[in-house]
Records
---
Amino acid sequence: MKAAPARHPIDAAAPPSSGTASRAWLVLAAVLAGGSLIAALLDSRPLDWQPDLALAQPWRWWSAAWVHWSQFHRWANVVGTLLVAALGWRAQCDRLDSLAWFIAWPLTHLGLLLQPALAHYGGLSGVLHAGVVIAALALLDRERGVRRALGAAIAVAVLLKIVLEHPWQAALQRAPDWDIAIAPAAHLSGAAVGAACAAAMAVWRHRRGGGNRFTPSVDR
């Protein structure tokens, strides 16, 4: 009787299919976009980010992402959320990536405490920057070839965008294409928090033995 061949470690570490793995990412994106549309019907005052109320009213760590200051601001961010959802789907972001994005959501706003001059803040852009960075690092960590190069290009583009926005200057800055003042510090906070959360989940994933989707050919 011939013994069954031992299962190769790479097989044991195989991730779920992209459809299953990315579902949590899409659900989170839907919550972000849907919450923004619902918040249009509500009073923003109990929801927006206010550093003086951050500890007394901690729900603002989440609800601030749904507050927008104009219809253009809201719909631009809703479209941006759809693009980040598509990026995460194509990058096969898994449950740990989705968890990283979820954790980055409130922490992005907590990072705004470092910019005390920002007395009010609302918008998805900081959280979206976190999502883009997490998806880019997923490509860098677990892919090869063109897909890894794409992840690197996205990460560099986000870094360059943030540097050009000068987030260390005024808390609110006017941009020619926007009908509101933007807060570059939120973009910096989101990107930094997203990178930190992605790194933490990558360590967790590698310790569990499922750190790389790339499967080299194996002689059997």
---
Amino acid sequence: MIANAPVSTYAAAIDPAKATTRTPLRVRFCETDLMGIVHHGSYLVYFEAGRVEWLRKRGVTYADWAAKGVHLPVVEAHLTYRAPSRFDDLLEVDTTLKKLGAVSLEFTYRIERNGLLIAEGLTRLGCIDASHKLMRIPDYMRDIFLAGELPA
């Protein structure tokens, strides 16, 4: 940890080779609108699916941390649509840890179909305790965030 660094400016060095997880995802009918296009709100669900799988590939689930009284709510989300996707399309969600600060972290996402960029965006998550008070990200969580995927 950086001595005397303000909480808001402390950031960990992230190894780009360990920061990304690719998750395949097939579009379900219930995620489409009357035009047969994936509904805009579904992409945030795809971001979450990518983030949950990102953690799982590092040996942890949100439930593990929630049981310890630590939560990571999304406090900011951005999404840009690039091309439509439809029912039964096989998408790939690339989830990348982009920033790891003292009390928050940021993931970026790229959703592609056969190499075509469909959507991209980011989410920022804050770390809170069971009382919903902001807290520093515990060292055991930081270690997981900075580690790569576990062997399959």
---
Amino acid sequence: MVNTSKAALSCGLKDRQWEVTVAVSAAVEKELKSSEAVILEVKKILNSNKYTDEEYSTVVAGFIDQVIEHLEAIILLTRSNINGSAFALVRSVAEGLVRGVWFTACATQPQVLKFRNDDKIDPTFGEMSEAIDKKCGIDFFADFKKRSWNPLNSYTHTGILQIGRRFTGNVLEPSYKDAEIIEMIRMITVCILLLVRPYLVRQKHDISAKGIDALGGKYGKHQI
């Protein structure tokens, strides 16, 4: 939180060195490398198949590609110690996950075409989350929305969660904790697995979908 005491405020703004350097702890770097390994395996699985050119398929393929790029950008930002911008991108990953799974599992053909032609999606993030749970017989996405949406908005829209981490005591110097960074990296890495798997299933690439399951199991046990 922002320090509200009446002590003098000092600015610790630093000249940004634009070469890519490892400016993170060993624990964070380990998590980043693990996430990178997951991304590489996901790409290998995706590249091993062919996909239909149905409207929903090309839309979801675009979501997958964009979410992977966001994840790669977050890794680069984190490694460069530009954590505020990394955290600001996380909501876009969550939105890409929910939209992509909704288009895979729930959207009608008119809804797909409305998005393609008019760039409009009528259901809200929460409504899409509930629809996915109902269609897939699970209890995950609605709870994910409930737990994460307000924090995600605060980071993306420069709310108090973001502003509070611009300070170290009374000094204007970022104070993102390793545990927070690691939790964020793990969440977005799981998001790409959750996005890709149902797409592979609908495309009838069951062996590849099982490969995603196995990859998620290894990642969950910190074996990658």
---
Amino acid sequence: MLQDTLRNSPFIQTTLLQPISYNSDKIRECFNAYKFPDGRTGEWWIEDRLKALFNENGEYWKPLHREGQLDYVVSALEGMTEGTMPRWNANRLIINLFDPKIDLHKSRCPTPPCLINLSFHPVKQSLTLIATFRAQYTDAKGFGNLLSLAMLLKDIADKTGFHPSKLYSIAHKAILKYPQSVAKGLLHSLLCV
């Protein structure tokens, strides 16, 4: 993800996260220890992203639960597992975090959410999640976003009788929060694992 932001056009970047065979614990350990120029660590950024999705005061928690969207997805998936909900409903397992009534405006503030859409796709007994970002700081937030989304996918799959499968993260605008030299240093530290 970060490597793509550094070398390619920052528009429409897709990251696929599948079960991994390399030492992900070591990568997370290296990211956790990495110190950004403002004094924040990778661990701080991961915690920030987990809070954004799972804490009731987090920036994504209320939109995720708005109008019963998450409850509907869980209920529909449970029904599909139990055979009481037709599988054709699978194309409705979408959670919109972008609210046009709030987020569609011409001023700089308030800033619309970066994570704008979650789409769940059951295939047989596997569940895939596609997350769409309006924009994403791939250096600071990318890793934590992937971890928090993977945890959400596992949690929903466990609750509904599915097996977590693939996680796609699509950023319409992949950007760097810190200077390119910082991102290159972070990437180097992670590739040396």
